[in-house]
């Protein structure tokens, strides 16, 4: 008897080879298989007559094959199968690429259903590479058909058949994790019906019922897990910090803090004197001054006799924080240190000993801060920068170096308030919604590739004035796919150096380079040893080069608005006017309208709201903190009302049964989903 943890190899009809292919998608168990939900659906329930096919539209037509299919070998790697199909209203010419086996499996005189985009004109219809199957089979046509995310070696048909085998294997063992009273109160279908109809819907209505049930379940379990995380934190008592006169800190700053910064500092200080561990997100737009909020919290912690640590995702970012904060902190009597992977073994031993002895008050570093050998005498505050880049487990590892230290996490990624609960549900949120006075907005323009000569002249002029520039491309290397005109970092950098800027210093950086190589390139750019840096979005977060005054984004339509806003935030950090040039040849009006949002506003929160409205929440889940489960069915952009219902149901259940003793299946599933964050109801 199979259970949901059964390896897919042992599911009837799957076997070793198919299991290996499914493994590339991360499908390893029976639960993985039946939870691999379609990303969209195609309605193939309606069959048209040939004469009713409209060129340019995708549709299904039933027609009889009039003569034997023919195969022609055009060139190596390209075979064509051609056939003619007819019904009483007209002729359909069909061509298949590289599917020569169809010659023997499609029989003249028999009727098949062809589903694809109609081409040709009103007198002669054509289809290229349609889905085809005998009329009446109803595996790939004649119904609402799921379309799954795929990988090489796994076709829609293979995946669909595998899911069918999986559903048959677990029909009687799918646990219903929603308590009966919750399911009845919110008029949700049973779990078996939901899984069957999310994959193989009987009708559009059945699909809606299935989707609503599974989306509710996701949001319900998510809420339970987040409430447990928060509850676990709120039941912990720590020695409250005492009051500290902050005037010495404020007087040491070379500028005045904004009201928003002072408000966030006040919220953090209130947490630290409360007797409960702080777990706060400080969220602010690019350049809003989050680091100074963190610095104030560090000062507050150290003046309470406790150590503080700031963890950054990259060595270069850690070094930037250290070099920026040490000149502020050391005159205030705070002993600072930098700990990264580049420290020698001897340096690491020395720093660890100093931390353990309490001879260092404030340490800045990378993952090196959480390695086994590093101990702290009295760690009172943990700050993590760009926190979505760290897993919940990594944050917990650093927090574990002390006795429930206060935690402040910083993010420059503006998140619409509708999403904040899902992405950062276990954190209290502070928002810095003001920019420091005097900061010049970055001038942004949208142009097509015909402007390249002018862009290059402009870059040359700025470099002559002593400035530097970024050029961002959507991919690392050129694609071999026909018609792919996306700029690639390596080739573009070489072309610019050779043909456009032979007299300037052009370098490139991308995510596939080794960390030391990346750091060397970025350090050279920071030290002004490079004029133009060609890059992927690896420079999107945290890189601070005040001398960089122009950001050119090639194929800008390939990026989300929030991502473009992050990229734009890499310039405008110095005393000079800065510029962002978005280059796109895409003529689609909706796409142009989306990109024009960047030209109209510099407000990251407005841009994020617009991104959510136009693209859905997918972009933001790229920034979800690792360790919290993702959403596979629910869509926060569309399911706000369902989220409210699920939260209400979860809160009511916890009020009745705080430890979920009456619904063990709910507790078990929630613990599985939050395993990395170590959330249980035991």
Walk me through this protein's architecture.
- The structure is a single chain.
- By secondary structure, this protein is α/β, with parallel strands linked by helices.
- Strand 14, helix 13 and strand 15 form a beta-alpha-beta unit.
- The chain is globular.
Write a brief caption for the model.
With 682 residues, the protein is an alpha/beta fold.
List keywords for this structure.
globular; 23 helices; 37% helix; alpha/beta; 7-stranded parallel sheet
Structural class: alpha/beta
C-alpha end-to-end distance: 28 Å
Work out the radius of gyration.
Answer: 29 Å
Overall outline: globular
Spatial order of the strands forming the largest sheet: 12-13-11-14-15-10-16
Q: Considering DSSP H and I runs of 4 or more, what fraction of the residues is helical?
A: 25-40%
Tell me the β content: 15-25%
- Tally of contiguous helical segments: 23
Give the integer mean of the pLDDT values.
83
Runs in which pLDDT lies below 50 for 5 or more consecutive residues are 480-484, 617-627
Largest sheet, strands/sense/barrel: 7 strands, parallel
Number of distinct beta strands: 22
Secondary structure elements and their pairing?
Layout: H1 15-23, H2 30-34, E1 40-43, E2 58-65, E3 70-75, E4 78-87, E5 90-97, H3 102-105, E6 111-120, E7 125-128, E8 131-134, E9 144-147, H4 156-170, H5 180-185, H6 191-199, H7 204-234, H8 247-252, H9 259-272, E10 279-284, H10 290-302, E11 307-311, H11 315-329, E12 336-339, H12 345-357, E13 362-365, E14 379-385, H13 392-399, E15 406-411, H14 417-423, E16 428-432, E17 443-447, H15 452-464, E18 468-472, H16 489-500, E19 506-509, H17 515-526, E20 532-535, E21 548-553, H18 561-568, E22 579-583, H19 589-600, H20 604-615, H21 618-621, H22 640-656, H23 664-673
Parallel strand pairs: 5-7, 10-15, 10-16, 11-13, 11-14, 12-13, 14-15, 17-22, 18-20, 18-21, 19-20, 21-22
Antiparallel strand pairs: 1-9, 2-4, 2-6, 3-4, 4-5, 6-7, 6-8
Helix pairs in contact: 6-7, 7-22, 7-23, 9-10
């Amino acid at each position: 008897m199979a259970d949901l943890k059964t390896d897919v190899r042992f599911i009837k009809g799957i076997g070793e080879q198919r299991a290996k292919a499914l493994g590339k998608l991360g499908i390893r168990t029976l639960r993985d298989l039946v939870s691999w939900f379609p990303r969209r659906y195609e309605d193939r329930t309606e069959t048209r007559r040939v004469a009713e096919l409209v060129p340019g539209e995708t549709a299904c037509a039933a027609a009889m094959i009039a003569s034997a299919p023919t195969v022609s070998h055009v060139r190596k790697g390209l075979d064509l199968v051609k056939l003619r199909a007819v019904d009483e209203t007209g002729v359909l010419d069909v061509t298949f690429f590289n599917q020569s086996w169809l010659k023997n499996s499609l029989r003249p005189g028999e009727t098949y259903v062809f589903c694809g985009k109609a081409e040709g004109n009103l007198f002669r219809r054509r289809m290229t590479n349609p889905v085809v199957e005998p009329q009446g089979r109803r595996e790939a046509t004649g119904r609402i058909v799921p379309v799954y995310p795929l990988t090489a070696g796994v076709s829609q048909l293979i995946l669909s058949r595998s899911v069918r085998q999986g559903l048959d294997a677990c029909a009687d063992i799918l646990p219903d994790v929603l308590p009966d009273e919750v399911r009845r109160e919110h008029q949700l279908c049973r779990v078996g019906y939901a899984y069957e109809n999310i994959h193989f819907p009987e009708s559009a209505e059945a699909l809606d019922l299935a989707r609503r049930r599974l989306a509710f379940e996701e949001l319900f379990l998510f809420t339970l897990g987040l409430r447990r995380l928060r509850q676990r934190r709120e039941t912990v008592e720590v020695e409250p910090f005492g009051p500290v006169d902050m005037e010495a800190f404020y007087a040491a700053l070379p500028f005045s803090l904004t009201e928003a910064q002072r408000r966030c500092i006040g919220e953090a200080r209130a947490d630290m004197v409360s007797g409960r561990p702080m777990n706060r997100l400080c969220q602010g737009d690019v350049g809003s001054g989050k680091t100074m909020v963190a610095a104030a919290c560090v000062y507050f912690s150290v003046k309470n006799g406790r150590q503080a640590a700031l963890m950054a995702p990259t060595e270069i970012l850690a070094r930037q924080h250290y070099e920026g904060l040490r000149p502020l902190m050391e005159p205030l009597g705070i002993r600072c240190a930098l700990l990264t992977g580049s420290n020698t073994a001897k340096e690491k031993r020395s720093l660890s000993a100093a931390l353990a002895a309490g001879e260092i008050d404030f340490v800045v570093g990378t993952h090196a801060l959480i390695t086994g050998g590093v101990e702290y005498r009295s760690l009172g505050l943990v700050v993590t920068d760009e926190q979505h880049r760290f897993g919940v487990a990594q944050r917990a590892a650093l927090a574990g170096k002390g006795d429930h230290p206060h935690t402040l996490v910083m993010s420059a990624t503006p998140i619409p308030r509708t999403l904040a609960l899902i992405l950062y549900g276990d954190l209290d949120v502070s928002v810095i919604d003001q920019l420091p006075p005097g900061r010049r907005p970055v001038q942004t323009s949208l142009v097509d590739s015909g402007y390249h000569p002018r862009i290059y002249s402009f870059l040359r002029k700025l470099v002559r004035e002593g400035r530097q520039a970024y050029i961002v491309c959507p991919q690392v290397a050129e694609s071999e796919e026909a018609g792919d005109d996306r700029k690639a970092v390596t080739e573009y950098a070489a072309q610019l150096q050779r043909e456009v800027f032979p007299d300037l210093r052009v370098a490139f950086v991308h995510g596939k380079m080794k960390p030391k190589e990346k750091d060397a390139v970025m350090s050279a750019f920071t030290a002004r040893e490079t004029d133009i840096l060609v890059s992927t979005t690896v420079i999107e977060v945290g890189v601070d080069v005040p001398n960089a005054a122009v950001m050119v984004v090639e194929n800008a339509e390939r990026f989300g608005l929030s991502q473009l806003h992050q990229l734009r935030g890499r310039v405008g950090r110095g005393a000079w006017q800065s510029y962002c040039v978005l280059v796109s040849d895409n003529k689609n009006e909706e796409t142009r309208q989306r990109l024009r949002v960047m030209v109209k506003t510099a407000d990251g929160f407005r841009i994020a709201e617009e991104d959510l409205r136009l693209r859905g929440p997918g972009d933001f889940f790229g920034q979800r903190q690792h360790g919290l489960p993702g959403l596979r069915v629910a869509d926060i952009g569309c399911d706000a009302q369902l989220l409210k219902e699920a939260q209400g149901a979860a809160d009511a259940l916890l009020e009745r049964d705080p430890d979920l003793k009456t619904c063990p299946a709910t507790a078990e599933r929630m613990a599985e989903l939050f395993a990395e964050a170590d959330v249980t109801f035991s």
